Protein 1
Amino acid sequence: MAEVIVLDSETAAGTLAAASIRALIARKPDAVLGLATGSTPLSVYAALAASLAEDPLDMSRVRGFALDEYVGLPTGHPESYRAVITRDVVVPLGLDPANIRTPNGDVATLETAGIDYEAAIFAAGGVDVQILGIGQTGHVGFNEPGSSFASITRIKTLTEKTRVDNARFFDSPDQVPIHCMTQGLGTIRRARHLILLAFGEEKADAIAAAVEGPVSSSKPGSVIQLHPHVTVLVDEAAASRLANRDYYAYAYAHKYAWQGI
Ligand code: PGA
């Protein structure tokens, strides 16, 4: 089962995830990070940047693959995930941009972009740790309800709900692209460690469904139940609909230090 850790703040969750990622890079300097966008993972990137400022680590060989990208935004658009990853991750962590890939959302090459991305992940030896947020629809990456657990990187149609949720990053809701290229649930399942973060009451249903609900493609986050190494980092509000919340706290309080997360 996923390890669920309830923390009292986003900052605490970011610090815990960052410590795990830092330890990974220290033992594997060319580690492959799976990078998520959105508001949720920002505390992880901020904590990692702060840790690196205090105690530098060679980041020059670290590689990264973004989870998803909008289709059809012009190159350099500030809300393209390439631009977001550059701004929020590559620059603050001092990564080499040449080592970081995002799915190609160019409409001219959509037919082959998915398989090309899968090949690049495969050539890199796979993702060591995948950072994940979860949408209110239960999506991980942009795998909206109904996505196959075997899916690979491909074009998807965003739900209207997701477009409305993401409209805050654009001037108006109709500027949010209708399509995206996203790693599939099958792609995400191949990452060696998943760290899923969620904060706030509006994520409580999605977290309860992902952690404790039936495994169903109608609840894409429930794919985590099929993975052998998952860490779920949530605040009290996002944990508020978990039936086994007390057990998770009990298990975490009694785990051995060598287990890490
Ligand atoms: P958020 O998005 O982190 O901005 O809430 C999460 C997601 O849609 O996966």
Protein 2
Amino acid sequence: MRDVAVVGIGMNDFGELWKKSLRTIWAESAFAALSDAGVDSVDLITIGCMSPGLFVGQEHLSSVLADELGMAGVPASRVESACASGGLALRTGFAEVASGLSDTVLVTGVEKMTDVDGADATYALGTAADQEWEGFHGITFPGLYAMLAVAHMEKYGTTSEQLAAVAVKNHANGLLNPHAQYHLKVSVEDVLESTMVADPLHLFDCSPVTDGAAAVVLTTVERAKELSGDRPVVTITGSGLATDTITLANREDLTELAAVRLAAERAYKMAGRKPEDLHVVEVHDCFTIAEVMATEAIGLFDPGYGASAVEDGLTSLQGKIPVNPSGGLKSKGHPVGATGVAQAAEIVTQLRGEAGQRQVEGATIGLAQNMGGSGGSSIVHILEVAS
Ligand code: COA
């Protein structure tokens, strides 16, 4: 396998972007990444997008978007793994460069979610759950994660206040991220007093519905060194992908995200790293409980200690292991297909030392964890500054 580097990153400002179309926000982030990389041609475009048909009535994105970039003719493919589609696009691009099939790949993620109303967005997202055993009975994603939260609370004594601390931290970080959908300071009381969405999850325990796109350019480490000048070269040293049962009812233990654990184990093994080596982490906090369970599954904390770790400040920007310095899905927003790519872009920004007020000092090794549905799939990447 060849060593793979991220040589360019780009994303647009996430939010409710009613004046822009899917192709426009996608092209904005793609051009930003190409410009950041200093390249004007690529061998392949990968696109992570969960459900363009249901959200904007457009399938066949590979051709639509390659053409939008003025690159009709270039190979392009869309990949889908629900909310982990962006992470899967990154892994696809990584495999292409590592194997030698492509030298330079534009990896992108996009979702335009606010062109439909809330009920239709909930339906579209719900197609990532098991239709026969979950969707048909009326369950939604807030409901599925509420069940995970209740199980975690019953087994480990996790509290609503501890979950609220995740939202408080991530909104505080999001205040420092110009691309974030929400620039809000929230307190534990604000979270607990916000509308109950699915007991025990309040409005502020949930990620929002978001329009957004993100892109990164991958190439060989050798070419990246030529292109990067004085900037640090960031390499992808580990990539892990795993699945789990989609249906919660089929899981042996509702308090563990097994796909996340497996994907992380595979990424650590490839990179020759362990959780203690990490300096900065982005995890898939689609709900506050998801951040707690993800940090346990990637081995930052023992099972049952993820929630108290947040309350004790261990995952804050100045903490022992900062988690979601970007603001996470909670504050930055969660355009589902874009999220996995945006997470990687944040880790690259951190490892380059370009994160401004939210910079994690001295970070040289980071991890990005992306998740599909209620943990039916997960993708983990480890990124490091090249020596
Ligand atoms: N966090 C903070 N504020 C939020 C928010 C969130 N997650 N979602 C909406 N808001 C705000 C809006 O900005 C709006 O504020 P305003 O009145 O000041 O303009 C207000 O709350 C109402 O917004 P609205 O869009 O009407 O909310 P809603 O009730 O339709 O939707 C949720 C709220 C939580 C149901 C929706 O955001 C949701 O479904 N989130 C989960 C998304 C999801 O499942 N993703 C996949 C995960 S696997």
